[in-house]
Design a protein that fits this description.
The chain is mainly alpha-helical. The chain has 18 helices and two strands. The chain has a two-stranded antiparallel sheet with strand order 1-2. α3 runs antiparallel to α17 and α5 packs parallel to α6.
């Protein structure tokens, strides 16, 4: 056991160091660092001459759950109501109703094309490395739509940061606001799909009751943890640099999320609510955000590395065409959702199109896929490789062409310092 522990320390320590170096390289070659880190994790076992995964799916799912709570907490921590309030209603519509529209449209298209495939081979079929095919029934189609309906603000803003001056400020706030709120919705929908696949849903009314209770308990525990956090962190001692405020945040986060789970609530929603309340408290200084950034970035890197270590390149190859079709379906569904939810908003058509195109997938679909792999569902074992394939397609096509899309957006819009969002509709 001791030997295994130090092997994991050597493995993750070396990979974290390499991941940081790859981030520097990605800025020079204009490719997303997430893409390089995922490829590194996939190729590592073959490079070391080991054709078996270093992590089991259960181990990867446990690590991913911890990492996802930290990522959601940091997303809430960095959400500023003072800058978001002018786009809050549009962002909430996109994150809640929009997430449902994206998942619903993608589910309908995937399921409908799968039914047509019974007589005619219109699209490829989900196939694992052994050649086993999984036609998209309703639970599988719903899971695919739910897994891919959320977006990753960290990935998008990292790519847009060098060219952010060409993008209207409210549009950047809208993208960040939507990405911060839609993760819990995607996780809940994916959980419903897995429960449906395992035959654990007895009644829609019971489902609504359970989901509502899970949301309420998670939000309540998150608020209570944040209240305690603001009381402790509001002391002068913790407002100084290197005072250990990030340790207090991490400890309270673990206690609150564990309490929410044991009480039947959503630990992910608990983490996000807790981050929002602490981050927007007048008693808390912004130094806490900067100190917690290191923990969040490490969590994102570990999450990407975990998926790379679980999935091999040969697992992705049979899924390449099906993943590409689902990627296109998701993009079309997101474009439809954006124009519906932003109808009668002050955002112009080029900005709506850019917002739809900027919806990169990242850490959350990876964590959801690992959860499916450990759930015991027949098609769950294919999900890590499938999620990785879709994320790679997004990083290649969206990530590489996002700077060019920014140039097109700047040319399409009239030069203006800000949008008249004071007239934003609710």
């Amino acid at each position: 056991m001791e030997h295994t522990t130090y092997v994991y320390m050597l493995l993750f320590g070396g990979l974290l160091l390499l991941s940081r170096l790859l981030e520097s390289i990605s800025e020079k070659i204009k490719l997303p660092s997430m893409l390089l880190i995922l490829i590194m994790g996939m190729l590592l076992p073959d490079f070391l001459g080991n054709h078996q995964s270093y992590l089991s799916e259960e181990q990867a799912e446990s690590i991913a759950s911890i990492g996802l709570t930290i990522i959601l907490f940091y997303g809430g921590l960095t959400t500023r109501w003072t800058s978001m309030r002018r786009v809050i209603w549009s962002g909430l519509r996109m994150a809640t109703l929009g997430c449902l529209i994206t998942a619903g449209a993608a589910t309908a298209l995937i399921y409908g094309l799968s039914q047509l495939n019974l007589d005619h081979n219109y699209i490829p079929v989900l196939t694992n490395n052994a050649g086993t095919q999984f036609p998209a029934d309703l639970p599988l189609a719903l899971f695919l739509g739910a897994m891919l309906c959320s977006t990753d603000a960290t990935a998008v803003l990292a790519l847009l940061r060098p060219i952010a001056s060409k993008i209207p400020g409210p549009l950047l706030n809208l993208i960040e606001c939507e990405s911060g709120f839609n993760d819990p919705v995607a996780v809940i929908l994916a959980g419903v799909a897995l429960a449906l696949a395992k035959g654990q849903l007895e009644s829609p009314l019971l489902l609504l009751r359970d989901v509502g209770l899970e949301f309420a308990v998670g939000a309540l525990v998150g608020w209570a943890g944040a209240y305690l956090g603001t009381y402790i962190l509001g002391r002068d001692h913790y407002l100084k640099p290197n005072a250990g405020s990030e340790v207090i945040c991490l400890a309270l986060l673990m206690l609150s999320c564990a309490t929410a789970f044991l009480c039947g609530g959503s630990p992910l929603l608990c983490a996000y609510v807790m981050g929002c309340v602490i981050g927007n408290s007048r008693k808390i200084d912004c130094i806490i955000v900067s100190e917690f950034t290191i923990i969040n970035r490490a969590s994102e890197l570990v999450l990407l590395i975990c998926l790379g270590l679980v999935v091999f390149p040969q697992d992705i190859w049979p899924l390449k065409w099906y993943a590409f079709v689902v990627f296109l379906i998701t993009m079309v569904s997101r474009l439809l959702m954006t124009f519906i939810t932003l109808y009668r908003s002050p955002f112009q058509a080029p900005e709506k199109t850019f917002s739809a195109f900027a919806g990169l997938r990242g850490a959350v679909p990876i964590a959801i896929a690992l959860q499916a792999a450990a759930s015991g569902v027949a098609w769950g074992t294919v999900m890590p490789a499938f999620a990785l394939a879709v994320v790679i397609y997004g990083l290649i096509f969206q990530g590489y062409f996002l700077p060019a899309a920014t140039e097109l957006l700047a040319n399409a819009l009239q030069p203006q310092a800000d949008l008249p969002l004071n007239q934003q509709s609710s």
